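Researcher: I'd like a structural prediction for the single chain below. Treat it as a standalone chain; there are no partners to consider.
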Amino acid sequence: MYLDIKHIDSEIHKTLTGPGNEQILENIKAIDNFGIPIVIRTPLIPGCNDTLENIKGIAWFIAPLTNVFGYEILPYHNFGEAKYKSLGIPYPLKGTPTPSDTKVRDFVRGANEILQNYGKDCFYVKDNQKEVII
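Model: Treating it as a single chain, here is the predicted structure.
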């Protein structure tokens, strides 16, 4: 199962998405307890959730979970902008840059400083290849 955590801080999560993240985190724990394999993902959006503190906070949350076997960082892209335009809806992230490869790699490395002690990996996909930075 793939599940997203956009921000570990519930108040910031609420600012970004509307609700806090308490129910999301509780659901992840419940699914983990059922033994279902999980990959946690974070869409990395510059100016919203792209801090090492956030990424490491998520890593600390998922590290002890038994059935989480991966953490994927999803670098923001503007591929959805054309869809919004065709629907006549303003694109809320217009002008948001794609995070640099260096920044994404730094976040993956930071999460792995925590996760690899628990037998887990953080990764991102570049050119259709899974990249794990240690």
